[in-house]
Amino acid sequence: MKLKLDENLGERGREILVKAGHDVATVPGQKLQKAVDKELIRHCREEGRALVTLDLDFSNPLVFPPETYPGLAVLRLPRSPTQAHLFDVVRTLAGGLARADMTGQLWIVEAGRIRVFIRDR
To answer: Where in the chain are the domains?
Structure first.
């Protein structure tokens, strides 16, 4: 899957996803660090990349309707996270992507668990 990692996820997170077979671009690699949320998600849509982020703003389906994007994965960490926590969550995401396609979906990813937002019709 084509993914874009937000600026707070680092090189090791990118490596985990690349080793899992994904095409991964990063916000710093594309010099989008200062981009506002709407500009960043527009880039994701234009590139056909799902966004992987720690930014909880992207978990609001009223502001960012998941069905209009290539996918949104919001990573959730414990209150006092370590680098190991981050890598566990990224590995959980990689495992989920091996089993399912998140195109047009919002995934809330925690270590060992993925919750998928389903809009009531």
So the answer is: 2-117
